[in-house]
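User: I've been trying to design a sequence by hand for this structure and keep getting stuck. Would you show me what you'd pick, starting by listing the structure so we're on the same page?

Assistant: Good idea, let's start from the same input. This is the structure you sent:
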């Protein structure tokens, strides 16, 4: 008699449970408004990080210029 061993991923998948109340997914569909709002939030975060990086770069160049002029 041959015994089949289940793989660890199969065990994990069988014991995995999905949350009952998931607002993003309803019956396999995604709300377009949720995706658009996530996209807008991601754009805001990226814009803020770009601004912070630009300010840091300009500050470094300014400090370096002041040090060289002394």
């Amino acid at each position: 008699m041959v015994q089949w061993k289940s793989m660890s991923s199969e065990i994990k998948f069988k014991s995995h449970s999905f949350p009952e109340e998931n607002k993003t997914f309803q019956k396999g569909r995604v709300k377009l408004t949720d995706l658009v709002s996530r996209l807008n939030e991601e754009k805001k975060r990226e814009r803020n990080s770009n601004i912070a990086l630009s300010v840091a770069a300009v500050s470094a160049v300014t400090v370096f210029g002041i040090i060289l002029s002394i």
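That's my pick for every position. To get oriented when you compare it with your attempt: Helices lie at 8-15, 32-69. The chain has a mean pLDDT of 80.
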